[in-house]
Amino acid sequence: MARMHKSLYNVGALLKGLATTFGFMFVRRPTIEYPSVKKQHAPRFHGLHELRRYADAKERCIGCELCAVACPANAITVIGAENTPQDRRSPGERYAARYEIDELRCIFCGMCEEACPTDAIVLTPRFEMAGLRRGAFVYAKDRLLVPPTEGVGTAPDERPNGIPSDLGRVAEIKSTTDVQTGYDATNRGTILKKQRKGLAG
Amino acid sequence: MTAVATPVLMQGIGEADLRNIDVYRERGGYKQLARAFCEMTPASVLDLAKASGLRGRGGAGFPTGSKWGFLPSNDHPRYMVCNCDEAEPGTFKDRMLLEEAPHLVLEGILIGAYGIGCKHAFIYIRGEFKRGYEIMRRVVEEARAAGFIGKNLFGTGNDLEFTIHRGAGAYICGEETALLNSLEGKRGEPRLKPPFPAVEGLYKMPTVVNNVETLAYLVPILERGAQWFSAVGTDKSKGYKIVSVSGHVKKPGNYEVPMGTPVRDLIELAGGVREGRKVVAVQPGGGSSACIFEEHLDLGYDYESMQKAGSMLGSGAMVVFDDTTDFVRAAHSLVRFFAHESCGQCTPCREGGHWLEQTLERLVHGRGLPSDVDILKKASRQMTGLNLCALGDSIEPFLASVISRFPEQFEARVASPREVAASV
Amino acid sequence: MAEQPQSVSVNIDGAKISVPKGTLLVEAAKLVQKEIPVYCYHPKLGPAGLCRICLVEIEGMPKLQIACNTPVTDGMVVHTYNDKVNAGRRAVLEFFLLNHPLDCPICDKGGECDLQDFSMAYGQGASRLAEPKVSKPKAVDLGPTIVLDEERCIVCQRCVRFDDIITGERSLIVKDRGYRDIIATATDDPYRSNFSGNVTELCPVGALTSKTYRFKSRPWDLHRTTTTCTQCAVGCQMQVDERVGEVARTMSIPDDDAVSDGWLCDRGRYNIGFYRDERRLQTPLYRVDGQWTQVGWDDAFALWAKALREAVASGGEQSVGVLGGGRLLNEEAYLLQHLFRSLGVRNLDWRAGTQRQATPGSNAGSLQDLENAQAIVLVGESPAQLAPVMDLRIRKAVSRHRAKLIRVGAIDPLPVVACTTLESAAEVPKALPAGAERVALVWDGVDPKLAREVVAALSDFSGLKTFIASGQNNARGAEVMGMHPAFGPGFAEVDGGKDFSGMVAAARSHSLRALSIFGANPALHYPDGVAIREALRNVPFLAVADLFLTETAQAANLVLPACGGFEKTGTTVNVTAVALPVNAALEPPEGALTDLEMLGCLARALEVQLPSVTELENSVIKHLVATAPSFGLGDAKVCGTTQFGQASRTGGPKLIARTDIFSGGGTVAHDGRIESLRPLPEAAVSPACAQQLGLSTGDCCDLRSGDQTMHDLLVEVRPGLADDVVVVVAGLPDDPANALGFEPVAELINVRRARELAPVGVSP
């Protein structure tokens, strides 16, 4: 009797387990077929860094090193230099001659973004940065800075007070990121194209 | 009883050409100088100055005799400097004396110099007083030719040299240490005190700096005695005073009256205000003094009464405001002056003056912010008492007195945000 | 009755302290660790009472008082931190920040800025100013070294007062007035001073910045090392701030009263770029058939040791010579002479230039003696260019302690302080102020005869203190360590060898077979350029250890890359015989060795036993530095028979070379950051001479002697010079002053007027 009761009990558990299994047959699959399908991240996902520009193509970064100070992982190295009238990189007097982030050390906390007085360094939702050499993860200006042909940069700007007023005499500078559309890490090109169209129009 | 002007220093001005040494001597000029040199010791001149109760007429009202008494009794060379850098807004008495009675001024300086035992006296003339400077140069040449300046004066073996220095046009050089710096050829900036000029003044030597009017009064005091001078006036403010009355009066000008003459009488003396107007405020002592109001008009014009009324006698420049006055513009004009004339040494004066000026400028144009009146009050209060010299403290008295008396005038200039937006 | 320093007691925030009468409140507060914020006050400049931030409450006084100009009185009760005081400071800070730009992120001072610090401590968060801030010029080029940001300036006038009180040059002023105040030079000329860098340190905000440091770094990035400046013999204590392997800047140590008095000269401060210059040697070079070949260090030592052994074997010990020590550290100088004396070599000398003596011997004084002297006699060239910070002390003695300055045999421009120039030593006693007891004599070490004469003339003064201002940082150390032909370590008398002039003569007669030079550039500095070039050519084996391929190194067979002062650790002896520590602040470049390492390796190759470093440090060096020799100035045994200062020929202007702090072919010539500071070749003549030759300042001329010519010299008419001399700048690589040979009679030719384009040949 006791044995019988036990086996019946086991059947119950079995059915219960199977019910869970079968139940999931009718639920949408959470896995996606990466890389042919890519996930849409939250708009404020902390991914790869980007150094933005002003609308007149000047670099936003003034080389103040506040990001490097704020960085809890010591991942940022900035070395400043002085703008010359012949070679003016940023508004004001100072620009970052060297700007390097060791993405392997970075913990993507976004403190650099918080610290930046000019909104130059921002975290994009881009996350694909696998590499074969450790050295390749030290991102310098050549990979961080938005190319001058591609607008101001694509990171969202959702601060409570919007974009802080600009330093120096660059009053006309505004963000051209489309806040409504947001952006997708995978179709940056499309958005950039749209933006350029918008700018041209 | 209506007050009548009693010309002492102003005696003869407008009647005779006192710029001419012969005319001046005919009227008894340089007799007191000769008497001082020949019959008196420096100590007795000093005693006379002390006994007369003469107080500095430049603004601070410090007893002249005591000031001289601060000179150390060492054998360093000492200097007498006459401060003729009269630039206080509303004051024009020294200019009149310089241009109309220059010999009297010179005689006073020379007597004062003798009184402190100095061998070299200076007069520092305001840069803008070009005419007065030229008159003084001629006068000094005449006096030198007549033997009142130079070596072995009156055969007594006493030497006295005299130098005229013309400033370059800075209000701050009326401050005695800035004046000394300027006289030495340095930038006209007040010096850090202590040491005071009586100990370390011109060229680091003991120096007395006295106002033109103060020194000029020495001549009649010598002539008529200390008793004559100290009998006039009030208990603590003795003698006569030239008052420069200006503003909303019919006959602005210099009026020489005994100390303690009621303010109302002084206004009457200057012809009173225009018909149908009434006096609402009087600035009794130049640009850096607070306003006194209707209820104070019966007070005597002397150091103590003015202080009691919350203001000061200052250099004796009385500016009368009637009921048509726009006190915002008046304040703006004064503050702009002080901000412009700040030498820039001390931070509160340098930055605060400019801040107040900008704020008032906005108010004048009707673009004031709601916080502006508060800022005017607080910032002017905040910059007072923190500065090296008195210039930084000169803004607050007038501003504070008119804001507290006529707040509606200031508040009326505060614009609504919409107006501000429209005006930008 | 002598004045007794009275002491008064004061209560500062509850802490009672007794201080001498007259102490300023701000200084008294430091003693009880109470901070009173200051901007315009500086301990070396005194109170100015301008910034009004140092407010304190003194009981019994109605208003807040400034602590910087309030002397402590007995029984004073002071509060430096309470609500009333803080409200006053907050008020003043609000005024400071009204028009101060908020560009802290890009400001070089950000992080070490007094305005930032005190704003955090006492200031309020927001500004009540509704208007735009006052706009003033930014990045004003004030001079070759300094950039000024007028907007950031808070007009504390520290820079202006430094230029007035400390240097006495008075070129900086405050222009305009009120809120439009700006700092500028009085004449609108560039701000040039040998001490200009100090104003950047004095500036409490980021208004004055050094061109060499602008935007290079933020203060928190820097790694700081305290060391001794090795540019001249004063031995100023300094901080070296390093970042990513480079010297970002150097800073003075404000409380280094004993040596530098808290100041640095511009050479010491700004000549730091050479450490990472591309031209720096990184591998030993060996000349094979006239071509340089890179060799490894092992091969270099083998070649060197072989050449020395062969030279000793073939020509005897007398055919080997060593020059160096004046630029080495004590340890290195000691090992150098130890190594070569172990080989039997007696030809050792440190004197590559005109200086004959570095140790004043008896009567040697301290820098405090110099400051407190009642009369200072400068013999020969003044320390103004040789040891600038020493000159600052002389200026202090003259301008603030009312000492009388007297020059004998002067060649350099008139000093900024009052000075009496004399023709001969015999006039010196008469020129001294009446009743002078404390007399200081500062000699450039060049003309022993003149020095002896002046000392003899002053023999009546028991309080005479003597100094020798050396241009080489460790000349005195080299001498006491035994890098001298006549003296071993500690001035022990040894069998005499040849001095460097003797070695040059021997080399010219082909009897010197091997010469090793450490940290010296005789090709540029030896007074007879013709002789030294021939000598260097004739030596069969010449080894030169240096940082760069200098004029001397170019003539060498073996060149060894050495390390500079910031890359070494050891001790140096300064002008007043104080042993000062040198600490490494930088990693030397790969491939360069310190002289100490080199000597160790060479000793191993030569199989010579050297004392251990510990032994050196603990016993030898300390013991030697304390040696007090008994000889005097211009001693015949020290100076030898060679004599450079006395030009004897007649018949035309005699050529005399003077030093400039930025002359030299080594560290200055290889520092791109200070290119604009290097002096132009000049020919200075007296007004009478100029009139005779029809010259005026700004003209251009050549100098000729025999078949040698110095080209393109700018003529300068300089009052105070003798009528028969032409003074040129020594040690310029592009126009060496020794090119015309030994003390030549020069001929001014090819004079071009300042305003003429076509050159006109004029022969005097």
Residue fraction in strands of chain B: 5-15%
Spatial strand order of the main sheet of chain A: 2-3-5
Q: How many independent structural domains of chain A?
A: 1
Overall body shape of chain B? globular
How many helices of chain A?
Answer: 5
Which ranges of chain B are low-confidence, i.e. pLDDT below 50, for 5 or more consecutive residues? none
> What does the radius of gyration of chain B come to?
22 Å
Short characterization:
With 201 residues, chain A is α+β, with helices and mostly antiparallel strands. Chain A is 25% helix and 12% strand.
3D structure, described in words:
The complex is a heterotrimer of chains A (201), B (424) and C (764). Helices cover 25% and strands 12% of the residues of chain A. Chain A has helices at 2-25, 66-70, 111-115, 141-144, 188-200; strands spanning 49-51, 76-82, 94-102, 121-123, 138-139. In chain A, the strands form 2 sheets. A 3-stranded antiparallel sheet of chain A has the order 2-3-5. Chain A has a two-stranded antiparallel ribbon with strand order 1-4. Mean pLDDT of chain A is 74; it is low at 159-201. With 424 residues, chain B is an alpha/beta fold. Chain B contains 19 helices and 10 strands. The termini of chain B are far apart. Chain C folds into 5 domains: 7-81, Roll (Ubiquitin-like (UB roll)), CATH 3.10.20.740; 135-276, Alpha-Beta Plaits; 297-353 and 474-628, Rossmann fold (3-Layer(aba) Sandwich); 367-468, Rossmann fold (3-Layer(aba) Sandwich), CATH 3.40.50; 654-756, Barwin-like endoglucanases (Beta Barrel), CATH 2.40.40.20. Chain C is built from 21 helices and 33 strands. In chain C, α7 packs across α18, α8 (330-342) packs parallel to α18 and α15 (500-508) crosses α17 (529-538). Classes of the chains: A alpha+beta (201), B alpha/beta (424), C alpha/beta (764).
Name the features.
heterotrimer; B: 424 residues; alpha/beta; Rossmann fold; Ubiquitin-like (UB roll); de novo design (two linked rop proteins); 3 domains; five-stranded mixed sheet; 19 helices; 42% helix; 13% strand; globular; C: 764 residues; Alpha-Beta Plaits; seven-stranded mixed sheet; six-stranded mixed sheet; 33 strands
Record the SSE blueprint.
The complex is a heterotrimer of chains A (201), B (424) and C (764).
Chain A: H1 2-25, E1 49-51, H2 66-70, E2 76-82, E3 94-102, H3 111-115, E4 121-123, E5 138-139, H4 141-144, H5 188-200
Antiparallel strand pairs in A: 1-4, 2-3, 3-5
Chain B: H1 21-26, H2 31-39, H3 42-52, H4 64-69, E1 79-84, H5 93-100, H6 102-116, E2 120-125, H7 130-145, E3 150-153, E4 158-166, H8 176-183, E5 207-211, H9 212-216, H10 218-224, H11 226-231, E6 240-247, E7 253-258, H12 263-269, E8 279-283, E9 292-293, H13 303-308, E10 317-322, H14 327-341, H15 347-364, H16 372-382, H17 395-405, H18 407-411, H19 417-423
Parallel strand pairs in B: 1-2, 1-5, 2-4, 6-10
Antiparallel strand pairs in B: 3-4, 6-7, 8-9, 8-10
Helix pairs in contact in B: 2-6, 3-6, 5-6, 14-15, 14-17, 15-16, 16-17
Chain C: E1 7-12, E2 15-20, H1 25-31, E3 55-58, E4 65-66, E5 76-79, H2 83-98, H3 114-122, E6 140-141, E7 146-148, H4 158-166, E8 172-175, E9 182-185, H5 198-202, E10 208-210, E11 223-228, E12 237-243, E13 246-252, H6 266-270, E14 285-288, E15 291-294, H7 297-315, E16 320-324, H8 330-342, E17 347-349, H9 367-372, E18 375-379, H10 383-386, H11 388-399, E19 404-408, E20 420-422, H12 428-431, E21 439-443, H13 448-457, E22 464-468, H14 475-481, H15 500-508, E23 514-518, H16 522-525, H17 529-538, E24 541-546, E25 558-561, E26 570-573, E27 579-582, H18 595-606, H19 613-625, H20 636-639, E28 654-658, E29 682-685, H21 687-693, E30 700-705, E31 708-717, E32 725-729, E33 747-752
